[in-house]
Design a protein that fits this description.
About 20% of the residues lie in helices and about 30% in strands. It is an alpha+beta fold. Strands 7, 8, 11, 12 and 13 form a 5-stranded antiparallel β-sheet that branches. Strand 5 (about 140-145) and strand 6 form a beta hairpin. The longest helix has 12 residues, at about 5-20. It is globular, with a radius of gyration of 17 Å.
């Protein structure tokens, strides 16, 4: 398998799309859409060279490349307030993967941007063991959708793991600098550990998702919901029916 931290996550996210010699890819933090994050706007001095870098080397140019065609499983690990790879860029990057790509997310509240131990989530070892050593797969959040009335529902497959709890993570802070948004967690009380959950979402929440935590503390996340994009969710990975 392949993993990398920060810029290494950016690289491993590309390689997972274009090279099928690996069994899986597990980028930590790194993703595409650098131009959406002000933290990178002066990279390389900015200006014309930076725009050329966006056009040629940003990871978004590779995720759905016909020349690539790799369909290996992904596990994307990141935090709610990452300075360099905010959740909107992670969400957009995940959405660009072909719908046939097996995708797991592990998103954590205020996960520090750092090398190990912070940058070595134990979910990656669990995924490696599942794929290469016949261990138990991570929990899969197979579907997540928001119903009228503001209730988020999700279906999941625990793959034999013991579900310990579930939580809704959301932010009602519209700050365009995502790293400065304030997030909050709420326990999911309506949890059927055989594979269903539902939780009310605050009316003013601008971004949210649900986490399932197993008995080993491993975190599995739903897709990321962002209200700014509502009405534009007819994407191959997020069809209007999901």
């Amino acid at each position: 398998g392949l993993t990398g931290i920060s810029c290494g996550g950016y690289l491993s996210s590309i390689v997972g799309s274009v090279d099928d010699r690996f069994r899986f890819a597990a980028p930590v933090y790194g993703c595409g859409f650098y131009e959406l994050n002000p933290a990178w706007h002066k990279m390389g001095g900015g200006g014309e060279k930076l725009r050329a870098w966006y056009a040629l080397w940003d990871a978004k140019n590779f995720y759905d490349s016909p020349a690539g065609g790799a369909r290996i499983p992904y596990l994307w690990c990141c935090g709610t307030n990452d300075r360099f790879y905010p959740l909107d860029t992670v969400r957009r990057s995940c959405n660009m993967l072909d719908r046939t790509v097996p995708l797991n997310l592990s998103l954590k509240l205020n996960m520090p941007h750092a090398h190990p131990p912070a940058g070595d989530p134990k979910e990656i070892t669990a995924m490696a063991n599942a794929i290469c050593k016949d261990g138990k797969p991570l929990i899969d959040v197979t579907h997540a959708w928001l119903e009228k009335g503001g209730v988020l529902r999700a279906a999941f497959d625990a793959h034999g793991r013991t579900v310990a709890r579930a939580e809704l993570l959301c932010t009602c802070d519209p700050n365009p600098l995502l790293m400065k948004r304030k997030w909050q967690g709420a326990e999911v009380k309506d949890l059927d550990k055989s594979g269903r959950l539902s939780v009310p979402v605050p009316e003013d929440a601008v971004m949210f998702f649900v986490n399932l935590v197993d008995s080993e503390g491993l975190v599995a996340s739903s897709r990321i919901f962002e209200r700014a994009d509502w009405g534009l969710v007819n994407h191959p990975r997020n069809p209007a029916t999901d």
